[in-house]
Amino acid sequence: MTARTPRTRLLAACAVLASATLALTACGSSGSSSGSGSTGASAGATVKAVTADPALAALVPADIKSGGKLVVGSDASYAPNEFQDDKGTIVGMDVDLANAIAAKLGLKAEVQNAGFTAIIPGIGANKYQLGMSSFTDTKEREQTVDMVTYFTAGTSSAVKKGNPDKISADDLCGKKIAVQTGTTQADAIVDVINPACVKAGKPTVPNDGDKFDLQTDVTNAVVSGRDQVMMADSPVIDYALKQTGGQLEKLGATTDSAPYGIALAKGSALTPAVQQAVQALMDDGTYKEILQKWGVEAGAIDKAQLNGATS
Protein backbone atom coordinates (compact mmCIF):
# COMPACT_ATOMS: atom_id res chain seq x y z
CA MET A 1 0.00 0.00 0.00
CA THR A 2 1.33 3.40 -0.93
CA ALA A 3 -1.30 5.70 0.52
CA ARG A 4 -0.28 8.45 2.92
CA THR A 5 -3.36 7.97 5.07
CA PRO A 6 -4.75 4.56 6.03
CA ARG A 7 -6.98 2.87 3.52
CA THR A 8 -8.47 0.51 6.09
CA ARG A 9 -9.69 3.42 8.20
CA LEU A 10 -11.11 5.17 5.18
CA LEU A 11 -12.98 2.10 4.06
CA ALA A 12 -14.44 1.66 7.52
CA ALA A 13 -15.47 5.30 7.87
CA CYS A 14 -16.97 5.99 4.45
CA ALA A 15 -20.18 4.25 3.42
CA VAL A 16 -23.47 4.63 1.61
CA LEU A 17 -26.42 5.85 3.64
CA ALA A 18 -29.40 3.49 3.71
CA SER A 19 -31.46 6.12 1.92
CA ALA A 20 -29.18 5.70 -1.16
CA THR A 21 -27.39 8.99 -0.60
CA LEU A 22 -23.62 8.69 -0.51
CA ALA A 23 -22.07 9.50 2.84
CA LEU A 24 -18.47 10.35 2.12
CA THR A 25 -16.91 12.58 4.74
CA ALA A 26 -13.32 13.71 4.61
CA CYS A 27 -11.79 10.73 6.35
CA GLY A 28 -8.82 11.86 8.37
CA SER A 29 -8.31 13.30 11.82
CA SER A 30 -10.96 15.00 13.89
CA GLY A 31 -11.37 17.74 16.42
CA SER A 32 -8.20 19.07 17.97
CA SER A 33 -6.03 16.48 16.26
CA SER A 34 -6.79 17.59 12.73
CA GLY A 35 -3.16 17.99 11.73
CA SER A 36 -2.58 21.66 11.13
CA GLY A 37 -3.03 24.25 13.82
CA SER A 38 -4.72 27.59 13.47
CA THR A 39 -1.62 29.70 13.92
CA GLY A 40 -0.29 29.25 10.38
CA ALA A 41 3.22 28.31 9.31
CA SER A 42 6.19 30.54 9.96
CA ALA A 43 8.94 28.98 7.90
CA GLY A 44 11.40 31.67 8.96
CA ALA A 45 11.00 30.86 12.65
CA THR A 46 14.07 29.54 14.40
CA VAL A 47 14.31 26.32 16.37
CA LYS A 48 16.92 25.85 19.07
CA ALA A 49 20.05 24.04 18.02
CA VAL A 50 20.15 20.32 18.70
CA THR A 51 23.29 18.83 20.19
CA ALA A 52 24.33 15.21 20.01
CA ASP A 53 23.42 12.88 22.86
CA PRO A 54 26.42 10.56 23.38
CA ALA A 55 24.25 7.74 24.73
CA LEU A 56 21.99 7.86 21.68
CA ALA A 57 24.90 8.29 19.28
CA ALA A 58 26.35 5.08 20.70
CA LEU A 59 23.26 3.22 19.43
CA VAL A 60 23.97 4.13 15.79
CA PRO A 61 25.31 1.16 13.78
CA ALA A 62 29.00 1.45 12.97
CA ASP A 63 28.56 1.62 9.19
CA ILE A 64 26.16 4.55 9.44
CA LYS A 65 28.26 6.29 12.09
CA SER A 66 31.35 6.05 9.89
CA GLY A 67 29.45 7.65 7.00
CA GLY A 68 28.34 10.49 9.24
CA LYS A 69 24.88 10.91 7.72
CA LEU A 70 21.32 9.67 7.54
CA VAL A 71 19.96 9.46 4.01
CA VAL A 72 16.26 10.30 4.10
CA GLY A 73 13.78 9.74 1.28
CA SER A 74 10.97 12.31 1.05
CA ASP A 75 8.45 13.28 -1.63
CA ALA A 76 8.94 17.05 -1.58
CA SER A 77 5.52 18.03 -2.93
CA TYR A 78 3.46 17.78 0.25
CA ALA A 79 3.58 21.17 1.98
CA PRO A 80 3.94 21.94 4.83
CA ASN A 81 5.33 18.51 5.65
CA GLU A 82 7.90 18.31 2.85
CA PHE A 83 8.24 20.59 -0.16
CA GLN A 84 10.70 22.72 -2.12
CA ASP A 85 11.04 26.43 -1.43
CA ASP A 86 11.54 29.05 -4.13
CA LYS A 87 15.25 28.20 -4.21
CA GLY A 88 14.61 24.50 -4.72
CA THR A 89 15.69 23.58 -1.18
CA ILE A 90 13.68 20.80 0.45
CA VAL A 91 12.03 22.18 3.59
CA GLY A 92 9.11 21.38 5.89
CA MET A 93 8.15 19.78 9.16
CA ASP A 94 9.53 16.36 8.25
CA VAL A 95 12.77 17.90 7.03
CA ASP A 96 13.31 19.84 10.25
CA LEU A 97 12.55 16.73 12.27
CA ALA A 98 14.94 14.65 10.17
CA ASN A 99 17.69 17.21 10.74
CA ALA A 100 17.00 17.23 14.48
CA ILE A 101 16.98 13.42 14.72
CA ALA A 102 20.29 13.23 12.87
CA ALA A 103 21.84 15.92 15.08
CA LYS A 104 20.70 14.12 18.22
CA LEU A 105 22.50 11.02 16.93
CA GLY A 106 25.66 12.93 16.05
CA LEU A 107 24.96 12.75 12.31
CA LYS A 108 23.85 14.97 9.43
CA ALA A 109 20.62 14.39 7.53
CA GLU A 110 20.73 14.21 3.74
CA VAL A 111 17.15 14.59 2.55
CA GLN A 112 16.65 13.37 -1.01
CA ASN A 113 13.60 14.13 -3.12
CA ALA A 114 11.91 10.91 -4.24
CA GLY A 115 8.64 9.74 -5.72
CA PHE A 116 6.32 8.82 -2.90
CA THR A 117 5.74 5.27 -4.09
CA ALA A 118 9.51 4.70 -4.47
CA ILE A 119 10.54 5.51 -0.90
CA ILE A 120 9.67 2.29 0.94
CA PRO A 121 11.15 0.11 -1.84
CA GLY A 122 14.20 2.38 -1.66
CA ILE A 123 14.58 1.60 2.04
CA GLY A 124 14.49 -2.10 1.23
CA ALA A 125 17.19 -1.55 -1.40
CA ASN A 126 19.39 0.37 1.09
CA LYS A 127 19.06 3.58 -0.90
CA TYR A 128 17.61 5.38 2.14
CA GLN A 129 18.04 4.76 5.85
CA LEU A 130 14.81 6.59 6.68
CA GLY A 131 11.58 7.44 4.92
CA MET A 132 9.96 10.64 6.21
CA SER A 133 7.13 11.60 3.89
CA SER A 134 3.85 11.72 5.84
CA PHE A 135 3.59 7.93 5.91
CA THR A 136 0.71 6.68 7.99
CA ASP A 137 1.71 3.83 10.27
CA THR A 138 -0.47 0.88 9.27
CA LYS A 139 -0.28 -2.82 10.05
CA GLU A 140 0.11 -3.47 6.35
CA ARG A 141 3.17 -1.22 6.14
CA GLU A 142 4.61 -2.77 9.28
CA GLN A 143 4.89 -6.06 7.43
CA THR A 144 7.51 -4.42 5.19
CA VAL A 145 9.18 -1.72 7.30
CA ASP A 146 9.47 -0.62 10.92
CA MET A 147 7.58 2.58 11.76
CA VAL A 148 8.39 5.05 14.54
CA THR A 149 5.34 7.24 15.24
CA TYR A 150 5.77 11.01 15.55
CA PHE A 151 2.56 12.83 14.49
CA THR A 152 -1.15 12.34 13.93
CA ALA A 153 -3.22 13.42 10.92
CA GLY A 154 -6.24 12.48 8.87
CA THR A 155 -7.92 13.24 5.53
CA SER A 156 -9.67 16.45 4.47
CA SER A 157 -11.20 17.92 1.32
CA ALA A 158 -11.33 21.41 -0.18
CA VAL A 159 -13.20 23.28 -2.92
CA LYS A 160 -12.98 26.74 -4.45
CA LYS A 161 -13.88 29.60 -2.11
CA GLY A 162 -17.62 30.02 -1.84
CA ASN A 163 -18.18 26.45 -3.08
CA PRO A 164 -19.58 27.69 -6.42
CA ASP A 165 -20.71 24.21 -7.47
CA LYS A 166 -22.56 23.73 -4.16
CA ILE A 167 -20.79 20.45 -3.51
CA SER A 168 -21.74 18.47 -0.42
CA ALA A 169 -19.20 16.35 1.42
CA ASP A 170 -21.98 13.77 1.69
CA ASP A 171 -22.30 13.34 -2.07
CA LEU A 172 -19.24 13.39 -4.33
CA CYS A 173 -20.79 11.25 -7.07
CA GLY A 174 -20.06 12.65 -10.50
CA LYS A 175 -17.75 15.35 -9.14
CA LYS A 176 -14.29 15.98 -10.57
CA ILE A 177 -11.87 15.15 -7.77
CA ALA A 178 -8.11 15.80 -7.76
CA VAL A 179 -5.83 13.52 -5.73
CA GLN A 180 -2.16 12.63 -5.58
CA THR A 181 -1.17 9.35 -7.21
CA GLY A 182 -0.68 6.48 -4.80
CA THR A 183 -2.61 7.93 -1.85
CA THR A 184 -5.53 6.63 0.13
CA GLN A 185 -7.59 9.40 -1.37
CA ALA A 186 -6.92 7.93 -4.82
CA ASP A 187 -7.72 4.43 -3.59
CA ALA A 188 -10.93 5.64 -1.98
CA ILE A 189 -12.37 6.84 -5.26
CA VAL A 190 -11.89 3.41 -6.82
CA ASP A 191 -12.68 1.26 -3.79
CA VAL A 192 -15.28 3.29 -1.88
CA ILE A 193 -16.75 6.30 -3.65
CA ASN A 194 -17.43 4.98 -7.15
CA PRO A 195 -18.81 1.58 -6.06
CA ALA A 196 -21.14 3.44 -3.70
CA CYS A 197 -22.20 5.78 -6.49
CA VAL A 198 -23.02 2.83 -8.74
CA LYS A 199 -25.02 1.21 -5.94
CA ALA A 200 -26.93 4.47 -5.41
CA GLY A 201 -27.64 4.80 -9.13
CA LYS A 202 -25.56 7.96 -9.42
CA PRO A 203 -22.77 8.96 -11.84
CA THR A 204 -19.27 7.98 -10.78
CA VAL A 205 -16.29 10.26 -10.28
CA PRO A 206 -14.83 10.80 -13.78
CA ASN A 207 -11.59 8.96 -14.53
CA ASP A 208 -11.64 7.46 -11.04
CA GLY A 209 -10.34 10.88 -10.03
CA ASP A 210 -7.76 13.10 -11.68
CA LYS A 211 -4.44 11.84 -10.37
CA PHE A 212 -1.26 13.94 -10.19
CA ASP A 213 2.25 12.94 -9.20
CA LEU A 214 2.71 16.16 -7.21
CA GLN A 215 0.41 17.44 -4.49
CA THR A 216 1.09 20.99 -5.70
CA ASP A 217 -0.55 20.06 -8.99
CA VAL A 218 -3.56 18.70 -7.10
CA THR A 219 -4.03 22.08 -5.45
CA ASN A 220 -3.55 23.96 -8.72
CA ALA A 221 -6.17 21.78 -10.40
CA VAL A 222 -8.84 23.06 -8.03
CA VAL A 223 -7.63 26.66 -7.93
CA SER A 224 -7.66 26.77 -11.75
CA GLY A 225 -11.12 25.21 -11.95
CA ARG A 226 -9.98 22.07 -13.75
CA ASP A 227 -11.29 20.01 -10.83
CA GLN A 228 -14.01 20.70 -8.29
CA VAL A 229 -12.64 19.00 -5.17
CA MET A 230 -9.22 18.07 -3.79
CA MET A 231 -8.58 15.42 -1.16
CA ALA A 232 -5.37 15.09 0.88
CA ASP A 233 -3.99 14.68 4.40
CA SER A 234 -5.41 17.21 6.85
CA PRO A 235 -2.26 19.32 7.42
CA VAL A 236 -1.78 19.55 3.65
CA ILE A 237 -5.32 20.81 3.09
CA ASP A 238 -5.03 23.29 5.96
CA TYR A 239 -1.73 24.61 4.57
CA ALA A 240 -3.17 24.86 1.05
CA LEU A 241 -6.03 27.00 2.38
CA LYS A 242 -3.51 29.47 3.80
CA GLN A 243 -1.06 29.43 0.90
CA THR A 244 -3.62 30.01 -1.85
CA GLY A 245 -4.68 33.34 -0.40
CA GLY A 246 -8.29 32.52 0.28
CA GLN A 247 -8.96 30.83 -3.06
CA LEU A 248 -9.98 27.56 -1.39
CA GLU A 249 -12.19 26.52 1.49
CA LYS A 250 -12.49 23.31 3.47
CA LEU A 251 -15.31 20.93 2.57
CA GLY A 252 -16.89 19.00 5.42
CA ALA A 253 -15.15 17.72 8.53
CA THR A 254 -11.74 16.18 9.07
CA THR A 255 -12.16 12.82 10.76
CA ASP A 256 -10.44 9.58 11.80
CA SER A 257 -6.96 10.54 12.95
CA ALA A 258 -4.04 8.12 12.61
CA PRO A 259 -0.30 8.29 13.33
CA TYR A 260 2.44 9.19 10.91
CA GLY A 261 5.53 6.99 11.13
CA ILE A 262 9.19 7.24 10.18
CA ALA A 263 9.93 4.23 7.99
CA LEU A 264 13.07 2.15 8.54
CA ALA A 265 14.23 -1.22 7.26
CA LYS A 266 12.46 -4.06 9.05
CA GLY A 267 14.49 -5.12 12.05
CA SER A 268 17.10 -2.42 11.45
CA ALA A 269 19.65 -1.86 14.21
CA LEU A 270 19.09 1.86 13.59
CA THR A 271 15.44 1.73 14.67
CA PRO A 272 16.02 1.95 18.47
CA ALA A 273 18.32 4.92 17.99
CA VAL A 274 15.75 6.78 15.88
CA GLN A 275 12.90 5.98 18.25
CA GLN A 276 14.83 7.20 21.27
CA ALA A 277 16.02 10.30 19.41
CA VAL A 278 12.43 11.24 18.51
CA GLN A 279 11.37 10.71 22.12
CA ALA A 280 14.26 12.88 23.33
CA LEU A 281 13.19 15.68 20.98
CA MET A 282 9.63 15.39 22.32
CA ASP A 283 10.87 15.53 25.89
CA ASP A 284 13.21 18.52 25.47
CA GLY A 285 10.68 20.68 23.57
CA THR A 286 12.47 20.74 20.21
CA TYR A 287 9.74 18.64 18.59
CA LYS A 288 6.99 21.05 19.65
CA GLU A 289 9.02 24.04 18.40
CA ILE A 290 9.32 22.44 14.97
CA LEU A 291 5.59 21.74 14.77
CA GLN A 292 4.79 25.29 15.87
CA LYS A 293 7.14 26.65 13.21
CA TRP A 294 5.04 24.95 10.53
CA GLY A 295 1.66 25.58 12.14
CA VAL A 296 0.90 21.89 12.67
CA GLU A 297 1.17 21.62 16.46
CA ALA A 298 -2.38 20.26 16.73
CA GLY A 299 -0.99 16.97 15.41
CA ALA A 300 1.56 16.63 18.22
CA ILE A 301 1.88 13.39 20.15
CA ASP A 302 3.93 12.79 23.31
CA LYS A 303 5.21 9.25 22.81
CA ALA A 304 7.23 7.83 19.90
CA GLN A 305 6.02 4.27 19.51
CA LEU A 306 7.54 1.47 17.47
CA ASN A 307 4.99 -0.10 15.13
CA GLY A 308 2.04 1.55 16.85
CA ALA A 309 -0.53 1.02 14.09
CA THR A 310 -4.07 0.26 15.18
CA SER A 311 -5.28 -0.90 11.78
Automatic annotation (TrEMBL):
This is ABC transporter substrate-binding protein. The keyword Signal applies. It comes from Kitasatospora indigofera. SMART domains: PBPb. It holds the Pfam family SBP_bac_3. CDD domains: PBP2_MidA_like (cd01004). Keywords: Signal. Residues 1-25 form the signal peptide. InterPro entries: Solute-binding_3/MltF_N.
